[in-house]
Design goal:
The protein has a domain at about 75-145. The protein is built from six helices and two strands. The protein has helices at about 20-35, 50-65, 75-85, 90-100, 110-125, 135-145; strands at about 40, 70-75.
């Protein structure tokens, strides 16, 4: 299954609420690419920062997927790390190194995390890990029972 690279340059409008705009952009991408499975990294409950803003965007993302009949998975940050590097406690540098070893051309930790998340989604979609390691197979096996199916 050959996938096309996606470059998204998001420039939200200068309004008080970005949520309708974010929703419409996500729906546009869903309609353009017709995903058969999506992946959103689950919440990191120990994190600090803009948790309410992130929660709103997270909810909007899940709503867009649900209303457009796209099943999705919600692996925890530890599951993404375990899938990507073999260790649920991997450092950012270890995740970057693992992604680059597998072909990711970026050195940005967020991009490398997204690389691993996309490969995890592909593995769940195919029913077996694209990495063929024990750790990655364990994560894929766990995720197969946690696919969120749209209610509509």
């Amino acid at each position: 299954m050959e996938s096309k690279p996606v470059e998204i340059l998001l420039k939200p409008p200068k309004k008080k609420s970005h949520l309708p705009w974010i929703y419409s952009q996500l729906v546009g991408l869903i309609k353009l690419y017709a995903p058969t499975l999506a992946a959103l990294e689950g919440a990191s409950y120990g994190s600090l920062g803009l948790v309410f803003d992130l929660g709103e965007v997270y909810g909007i993302s899940k709503l867009a997927l649900e209303l457009n009949s796209v099943p999705y998975i919600l692996p925890s940050p530890k599951e993404v790390k375990k899938f990507g590097s073999g260790s649920g406690s991997a450092t950012k540098l270890a995740m970057i190194a693992a992604a680059q070893k597998e072909g990711c051309v970026s050195a940005q930790n967020d991009i490398c995390d997204a690389w691993h998340l996309a490969r995890l989604a592909r593995s769940v979609h195919e029913g077996t890990s694209v990495k063929a390691t024990r750790a990655s197979e364990e994560v894929v096996s766990n995720m197969l029972s946690k696919v969120v199916l749209p209610c509509l």
